[in-house]
Design a protein that fits this description.
The structure holds 2 protein chains of 2 kinds.
Chain A lengths: L19 E2 L1 E3 L2 E3 L3 E6 L6 E7 L2 H19 L4 H17 L1 H12 L3 H22 L17 E5 L5 H14 L3 E5 L6 H12 L7 E3 L4 H8 L6 E5 L2 H14 L2 E5 L5 E4 L5 H13 L11 E5 L3 H13 L19 H16 L3 E4 L14 E4 L6 H4 L6 E7 L2 H9 L6 E5 L3 H10 L4 E4 L18 E2 L4 H5 L20
Chain B lengths: L43 E5 L5 E6 L3 H20 L2 H17 L1 H12 L3 H21 L3 H5 L1 E2 L6 E9 L2 E5 L7 H11 L4 E5 L5 H12 L8 E4 L3 H9 L6 E3 L5 H15 L2 E3 L13 H4 L2 E9 L3
Parallel strand pairs in B: 5-6, 5-8, 6-7, 8-9
Antiparallel strand pairs in B: 1-2, 3-4, 4-10
The chains are: A alpha/beta, B alpha/beta.
Chain lengths: ~500, ~300
């Protein structure tokens, strides 16, 4: 029996977007030389005009960050820095609904997710790191670890505010100042965050936000005035930055792509596993670097699991991201939709069998139905390449060793999942999967206290927890640039 | 140089013979997968002692040798990383024991290679032994120092553990015959990683003699593989190798180190260790050891 849902749209009334946003440099909004428009991917409606940061804009943002670093932030006692971060955490929580609505409008993700995941976690990240600011000497990196200086941070469009928080909170807690470049398609919550910085009376120049496209990101990552680069995005761009840093000597952390295996044993509780698989690949339309995009199922469990999975996929509600009952929102951009469609087509050409949930797609905006592929070969593009969309590749295995071999047969190593009711098997699998995060009998869980980051070509460095501080402190550690800060150890 | 132990006190000749007897000289080969093969290329290069006298012909490793060594290191990785930390500590301590037993031989080789006086050579060997002991003790401490329990806001068991990156290429320092070599080698394997070590081109022979120690210390074959030859020839293939996960460029001169770092980044985002120069006698600290480690975070729900 199928129940129909009445529309339950979240109100936009709390949001008053400006027509045009400048760049946030030195504590105030300044205009730049050219602009571009940001749209809602669900309706293609223009939301606002934002500034395309150019050479001079990046220069002045870096200079503002340097000035604030030297004059204010690096010499401020940690407990005072921490109080600013606590303020920001509280302000984000106070304005949570506004942030959630803007995030959903700009990104296309369901309001349920931005409201329950993105925004609360962003606030929690600031609250968590605020407490570190005056305790860095106890973090295990020497008695008085120093900040690095000015951090250039480039973030993706899949969790715009949350990635901002992952980047800015630890950087500031450790005494660095930042220049952040939001993704081209999702600049608005960062602009709103600039407003939060003003409300918090954060000293000018501690946080600078330069909107723009990939070119702006390159300008920032290649800027000689930056001491540390933090990038979250594609492995291709990550390698480009890494090569550059190998020569320039800048410190670097990277959080890149993934092609996670979600492994289901035949003793797994099916209903829980199905929810975990759904969450793993359809959360945020699959725009998740750690998405469980490869489902490995123990052969005897395949048929009942697929039946249950398809039944559940049919019940997913795709559509208006502002509707509180929506499970699957809009694909973030036309370009991303094209990429998903072409990879799905390649999968079909390669002989994999496609099955998509029968859900009507809205006429306007960018949409892709929840989809799974069976009979997928290990060499198929849909087994190997990060699709970054709601597309699941299903294969089988017979032994735990085969599951491990298949799961690890990827250049990526960001995350993995395992489902079994046998504790010893879960722990053994967790130790043999070559990935930075392993979810056992759960998936896609995040917490500011929990280190997150990849093995292999998924990048290096951790975000979150005590481990995440290392990325923003002048401790001698390895990085691809091979550029290690002078050690006073 | 197995006859090294018989080199008489103060002697600086490369071939020593006891009265009435012709010494049996050692052939210095590579160390790959627990065996001592010649270079597949059939090439050697002449190694001289500190005074310029002939010492031996060392194997001149090729690209193929480097690749074979990576295969051996990869093959050894699951077993070595799967050992208990306690066991790895015991094996490293065993290395120290065996090295201590060959103290005179290594002191003679260090003297022959560098020309330092007897006491200095012995001090270097002793420091090398102590360094293995230091790292042996680290094996089962790393996880508690580097890992931990994460207090997440939800009903989950959540903990982070250090794990080895995988296969490392280690370019031994050019200026050290033994202590620098041990100081870059031990941290690469103590956490469970395996490695391909490229010996100093200037002092390649103590590295091969050290391989004899490793081969008789319960260290599984393939955990450490030793290549002798020209760093500039071999290292670029290791830096761009898609099955190498980390590289320590200590033994590469500045310009080459830049090139290697770029190749390491552009190929498969290797972890590059490029630490500031240190006196090998100084406290080694933890940076080099931690540089070979990843952090894995594991979540599991809790509930009735």
């Amino acid at each position: 029996m199928r129940f129909e849902y009445a529309p339950a749209p979240e109100s936009r009334s709390i949001v008053r977007l400006r027509d045009s946003y400048g760049l946030f440099i030195g504590g105030s909004f300044v205009s730049g030389s050219s602009v571009f428009k940001t749209i809602s991917p669900a309706t293609e409606e223009v939301l606002a005009e934002v500034t395309l940061g150019g050479v001079e804009d990046v220069d002045s943002a870096v200079a503002a960050a340097r000035h604030a670093y030297e004059r204010t932030w690096s010499v401020m006692p940690g407990r005072e820095r921490g109080k600013y971060l606590f303020r920001i955490a509280r302000l984000l929580a106070e304005r949570a609904r506004e942030f959630a609505v803007v995030e959903t409008l700009d990104n296309g993700k369901p309001i349920r997710e931005s409201r329950d995941v993105d925004v609360p976690l962003a606030s929690a990240h600031f609250f968590y790191h605020a407490g570190w600011a005056d305790k860095l000497g106890y973090a295990g990196f020497g008695p008085s670890p120093r900040p690095l200086g000015v951090a250039g941070q480039v973030i993706p469009w899949n969790f715009p505010l949350l990635m901002l928080a992952w980047k800015i909170a630890p950087a500031l807690a450790c005494g660095n100042t930042v220049v952040l470049k939001p993704a081209e398609t999702t600049p608005l919550t960062a602009m709103l965050f600039a407003d939060v910085c003003q409300q918090a009376d954060l000293p000018p120049g501690v946080v600078n936000i330069v909107t723009g496209d990939g070119g702006t990101g390159r300008l920032l990552a290649g800027h000689p005035g930056i001491d540390k680069i933090a990038f979250t995005g594609s492995t291709e761009v990550g390698k480009e930055i890494a090569r550059q840093c190998a020569v320039s000597g800048q410190r670097l952390t990277l959080e890149l792509g993934g092609k996670a295996a979600n492994i289901v044993f035949d003793d797994a509780p099916v209903d829980q596993a199905v929810e975990g698989i759904i969450n793993g690949i359809f959360f945020n339309q699959g725009h998740v670097c750690c998405a469980g995009s490869r489902l490995l199922v123990a052969e005897p469990a395949l048929d009942p699991l697929l039946d249950a999975l398809k039944r559940r996929m049919e019940s997913l509600r795709l559509g208006d991201p502002m509707d509180k009952n929506t499970d699957v929102g809009a694909i973030n951009s036309r370009a991303q939709l094209d990429k998903i469609q072409s990879l799905a087509a390649l999968g079909e050409e390669d002989g994999a069998v496609r099955w998509s949930a029968r859900c009507p797609l809205p006429d306007r905006g960018f949409w892709f139905p929840p989809t799974l592929f069976t009979e997928v070969s290990s060499s198929s593009p849909i087994s190997r390449e990060e699709i970054f969309g709601p597309v699941l590749a299903v294969t089988t295995f017979r032994t735990p060793a085969e599951a491990v071999a298949k799961a690890n047969a990827t250049p990526y190593g960001l995350s993995a999942g395992v489902w079994t009711s046998k504790g010893s098997l879960a722990l053994e699998m967790a130790s043999r999967l070559r990935a930075g995060v392993v979810w056992a009998n759960t998936f896609n869980r995040f917490d500011p206290a929990s280190p997150f980051g990849g093995y292999k070509e998924s990048g290096f460095g951790r975000e979150g927890g005590r481990h995440g501080l290392e990325a923003y402190l002048d401790v001698v550690a390895t990085d691809v640039a091979g550029t290690l800060g002078a050690s006073d150890v | 140089m197995s006859e090294g132990a018989q080199v008489s006190e103060g002697s600086e000749v490369s071939v020593a013979a006891e009265a009435g007897r012709i010494a049996v000289r050692k052939t210095y080969k590579l160390y790959v997968g627990g065996a001592f093969p010649r270079s597949e290329s059939g090439r050697t290069f002449e190694v001289t002692d500190h005074a310029g006298g002939f010492w031996a012909n060392a194997a001149l490793a090729s690209r193929k040798d480097a690749r074979d060594a990576v295969v051996a290191a990869r093959k050894a990785f699951p077993g070595w990383s799967g050992r208990t930390a306690y066991n790895r500590g015991q094996v490293l301590y065993r290395v120290a024991e065996v090295l201590e037993g060959r103290r005179a031989q290594f002191a003679a080789e260090v003297r022959l290679a560098t020309g330092v006086c007897r006491d200095e050579a012995l001090a270097e060997v002793d420091a090398a032994v102590d360094r293995w002991v230091w790292y042996a003790g680290w094996a089962d401490k790393i996880a508690q120092v580097r890992g931990g329990v994460n207090p997440v806001a939800g009903p989950f068991a959540n903990f982070s553990v250090p794990e080895p990156s995988g296969v490392a290429a280690v370019l031994a320092p050019r200026d050290s015959a033994l202590l620098g070599l041990v100081s870059v080698l031990a941290p690469a394997i103590v956490g469970g990683g395996t490695c391909v070590l490229v010996a100093s081109a200037r002092y390649p022979l103590p590295a091969i003699t050290l391989a004899e120690v490793l081969a008789t210390s319960d260290l599984p074959g393939g955990v450490v593989n030793v290549l002798t030859g020209q760093v500039a020839e071999v290292a670029p293939w290791l830096a761009s190798h898609m099955d190498v996960n980390a590289i320590d460029v200590t033994g590469a001169p500045g310009g080459l180190a830049d090139d290697l770092a770029v190749a390491a980044a552009g190929s498969n985002l290797k972890r590059v260790l490029r630490l500031p120069p240190v006196a090998w006698t100084a406290d080694p600290g933890v940076d080099r050891m931690f540089g070979y480690l990843e952090t894995k975070t594991i979540w599991h729900p809790m509930g009735l």
